[in-house]
Amino acid sequence: MKSQARGGTPAVGGSSSATTGEAAGTIAAHAHRLRRRLGRADLRAVPEARRELRELLRHWGKPGRSEIAELLTSELVTNALVHTDDDAVLTAVVEPGGLRVEVRDFVARRPELRGPGSDEDTHGRGLVLVQSLADAWGVRPHGVGKSVWFELDAEAA
Question: Whole-angstrom Cα distance, residue 91 to residue 114?
């Protein structure tokens, strides 16, 4: 699944995209796919998205991989809801080789990879976690907005 760049600079690219024709709060969980519309500034969506992803990944990957996926998903969902002041769309696709999670928002401003300001500051660590724990990740621009995505191999240690 390592289809895109990993490292300090988010890669531009990717293969899946989210569309926006769904009503807020609807969930389409197919055998290996989760899609959820996230309402503007609705931070209750963060634990709900984690729970839905946990259900999707119940029998996926080596031990610990689904927990990493939940953590990274909650970081991307939180970033989209807090930093864009707009709706977002979460898409997770499980394939034989791994998982791809994408959070699309409707603001063109690219996220910044930066460390936290102080030891007590809990802000600014989300993309650092994504960079550290994902097998691949990046940012893909859309006509309106962008998608921030990550991939995890199912069998990685």
Answer: 25
